[in-house]
Amino acid sequence: MVQVAVGVGPVSADEVVRVARDGAEVMLADDAVAAMAASRAHIEALAGNPTPAYGISTGFGALATRHIPHELRTKLQRSLIRSHAAGSGPEVEREVIRAMMLLRLSTLATGRTGVRPQVAQAYAGLLSAGLTPVVYEYGSLGCSGDLAPLSHVALAVMGEGQVRTADGALLPAVDALREHGLEPVTFAEKEGLALINGTDGMLGQLVLALADLDRLLALADIAAAMSVEGLLGTDRVFAAHLQALRPQLGQAVAAANMTRVLAGSPIVASHSGPDCPLVQDAYSLRCAPQVAGAVRDTVTHARTVADRELASIVDNPVITDAGTVESNGNFHGAPVAYVLDFLAIAVADLASISERRTDRFLDAARSRGLNPFLADDPGVDSGHMIAQYTQAAIVSELKRLAQPASVDSIPSSAMQEDHVSMGWSAARKLRKAIDGLTRVLAIEVLTAARGIEMRAPLRPAPGTAAVIAAVRDRVPGPGPDRYLAPEIEAVVELARDGALVAAAEAVIGRLS
């Protein structure tokens, strides 16, 4: 079993993905245990001090003016978690919860939050046992941390609430802990607060989204190249010297990928001579690298923000280098929220240009000699007519999801928390958008494969031929109308698991 060690330094994006998606076990490194033990001494000193200290001997948020006596402080932490575990709606996906748990554990392991090592060990134990607390869709405003989602996790550590096992069974947390040899934790001063005051939910979803987009950007270049080939477009516009005239980094990468996918195409060669009457391709073909490249550059910016946030210690109050405990505003999710929204805009546009290419295949006036709707017997058969409707419906939804969440703010906690980021909401809609992009690109590949095959006896490029072969392993080739939904879903799965990109790369080498 793969294992991730969590120490004083930050976890990497790859480690987040391994824990979230691959079920990697988690262990605490010795340096983390030592750092937590040392920092706990500062909290215990403040706990014994008659001067109130926020989150240690006071209430929370707008109730921070009340000093809490020693005998009520365990109840204070327990009550905090119970009251803040106020989520509602559908359950959040297992991978998101596991990413969120690992990121909160990573902050605990720095020794800057003042929790005891046993609290951090409880998180590592849950992750390694494959136990996932039940967390609900709604409840985070993306400020003061992802409060409700993180509280549902902390509730399970207390032995309350519900968890799902590795095989999906729903159990009371106390029973699941017992079955796996884990003990509920009774939180001491500040510990409950330290478990819920972070950007871990929105950051975890950003890290997972970036991993998905790395794969989907390569697929978008493949799909665009297939459409250029099937629609008798030209690859000359992707030449490196033309891209160099506009030195946008992502554009050059996308154009180089498309050139490699189309290399050696007999279809492209068949109409590339001086007698070809076609002067310019439509924008959706000719400008594919410009759009895909801009998306790449957006992803690069988002990854920079994610890497900075992975290296951050987000808690309030936090233990400083000097050993003091200070209030701060680092829990505000604005940096993460903005790039989550930015990515949703880029995803919507990448899907939009993909849908436009698909539509060209289906219009006999623009497909350059292909049957209307790529139908086997037009009029009797409808071909891929309604596949484009499905794309259009998804793209329309993606445009709605591109509306930024981070421009909204609803004050809370009796106006103490009077400006919030809505970063969790931005993360949730980006996950939906990435699913939509996956489906739109899959339909483009499915349609382009059919269009290319209808150019026979002309043959496609080796790269596109490999992708078509991967599709044909799951879906039959051109012919009379068939039940189309399962065929679309089969290609969606090939797109989601990276099989289409892997098929091309097996022939032409790794794409950038």
TrEMBL record:
GO terms for molecular function: histidine ammonia-lyase activity. Its EC number is 4.3.1.3. It comes from the Bacteria. It is found in: Cytoplasm. GO terms for biological process: L-histidine catabolic process to glutamate and formamide; L-histidine catabolic process to glutamate and formate. One of its GO terms (cellular component) is cytoplasm. It catalyses: L-histidine = trans-urocanate + NH4(+). Keywords: Histidine metabolism, Lyase. Pfam families: Lyase_aromatic. Its main location: cytoplasm. It is an enzyme of class 4 (lyase). Pathway: Amino-acid degradation; L-histidine degradation into L-glutamate; N-formimidoyl-L-glutamate from L-histidine: step 1/3. This is Histidine ammonia-lyase. The lineage of its organism: Bacteria, Bacillati, Actinomycetota, Actinomycetes, Mycobacteriales.
